[in-house]
Amino acid sequence: MRHDLNLTTHRPTFVTHLECSLTGEHYPADKLHGLSAAGKPLLVRYDLDGARAALTKDVLAQRPMDLWRWRELLPVRNTSNIVSLGENATPLVALPRTAARLGGAHLIAKDEGRLPTASFKARGLVMAVSMAKELGVTQIAMPTNGNAGAALAAYAAVAGMEAIIFCPDDTPEINVREIAAQGARVYRVNGLIDDCGAIVGQGAKERGWFDFSTLKEPYRIEGKKTMGLELAEQLDWELPDAIFYPTGGGTGLIGMWKAFDELEQIGFIGSKRPKMFAVQAEGCAPMVRAFDAGVEFAERWEDAHTIAMGIRVPRAVGDFLILRAVRESGGAALAVSDAAIMAAVRDVARDDGLLLCPEGGATLAAYSRALDEGLIGREDRAVLFNCASGLKYPLEDHSRRLDRHMAIDFAAL
Ligand SMILES: *Cc1c(COP(=O)(O)O)cnc(C)c1O
């Protein structure tokens, strides 16, 4: 559906077309799309020469520090379709004591827990819902491990759309309640996220729901891509040596890899790329298995289990894109244990004051391994992605009791 190009609301966008990520087949922009005919994710392509002429570093520097400062590299055409909740740029937090303890020198976390709905899913979903609104969608369905559903519920509320959400029945309680609180219908399903995805697929056929499963619509990648754009700018256009990304569907890893290419093509960065590390849990590591086997596609991981729910994804439709980016970058796919994840969360909070989510903890455990195995150097600058606020997860109780009616021995406190 084309919208009137009202001068007050039309923003310059440089989208030329969409492209199948496997076959390269072209699809028209400004139309509703799911997967390509080959059943693979569609990627948004831009007139990057046009974007290069329109966007300079000086222009960028004058804009508010939010996700929309990247408008020339984003797909929304009409500002009235933007369903914002305040997608602020997230800070880079130094972890000096953690780095020193592990024998590294330069370690920072990009703290994505500061975004609306307290996870980086906001980046993808604000874009996908804005585009769904632009293209006339009214009913959205999604399988989720929690945070994606929460972000969808919030933005669907802003857009005035109906959201129907299915999650595994052991999804963190706060997420399930958060989704419902934000006006969506949420069902706990006795299965994993891909079982929930099958229900969404069936409902899409029978009821015409628009399927918002990871990478099954083209725009979540564009939102998640802003992590890479933002990171480059925050590091003064010098990408780090290594990025550790907790990988479920891989949207963020694929998105950042795309962002770096686009930044190079508009002349903002050179050809240097970070080593990309796809981090998974030992109990659900389909990308690690495929990486180690040297194959292009990953098989479903049976009996997936880990405390890091956000990366409990047995099967990813963008598997080959994740593996390609990791290999081209000279990085690796690494699996870490739940015990290492929990220890990482505990240690960083105590040493450097940042409460990671379990998935963020996984990236630290992987950083430690990469150092020990020589996959990165001790002087390398590494960035971890803390993808959600640690406050969304159950915490251990280490409090002590005090009876105010008894004499208090202050020296002993
Ligand atoms: C969704 C999610 C991930 C995985 O992100 P992808 O880009 O889909 O791989 C990791 N951690 C948390 C907390 C998440 O919500």
Rough shape? globular
Tally the beta strands. 13
Q: List cofactors, ions and other ligands.
A: pyridoxal-5'-phosphate
Terminal-residue CA separation: 67 Å
- Can you tell me the residue ranges where pLDDT is under 50 for at least 5 consecutive residues? 1-8
If classified by CATH, what would the architecture of the domain at 92-118 and 220-392 be?
3-Layer(aba) Sandwich
What is the N-to-C succession of helices and strands?
EEEHHEHEHEHEHEHEHHEHEHHEHHE
Give the mean pLDDT.
95
Question: Which structural class do you get from the secondary structure elements?
Answer: alpha/beta
Q: Provide the CATH topology of the domain at 92-118 and 220-392.
A: Rossmann fold
Query: Order of strands across the widest beta sheet?
Result: 4-5-13-10-11-12
What fraction, in percent, of the residue positions are helical? 25-40%
Written account of the structure:
The chain has 413 residues and is of the alpha/beta class. The chain has a domain at 92-118 and 220-392: Rossmann fold (3-Layer(aba) Sandwich), CATH 3.40.50. Helix content is 36%, strand content 16%. It has 14 helices and 13 strands. Strands 4-5-13-10-11-12 form a six-stranded mixed sheet, sandwiched between helices. The chain has a four-stranded parallel sheet with strand order 8-7-6-9, sandwiched between helices. Strand 10 (242-246), helix 10 and strand 11 (275-281) form a beta-alpha-beta unit. Helix 13 (338-352) packs across helix 14. The longest helix has 15 residues, at 193-207. The model is unreliable at 1-8 (pLDDT under 50). Pyridoxal-5'-phosphate binds at residues 119, 121, 147-148, 214, 246-252, 310-311, 357, 359, 387-388. Pyridoxal-5'-phosphate (PLP) binds next to helix 5 and helix 10.
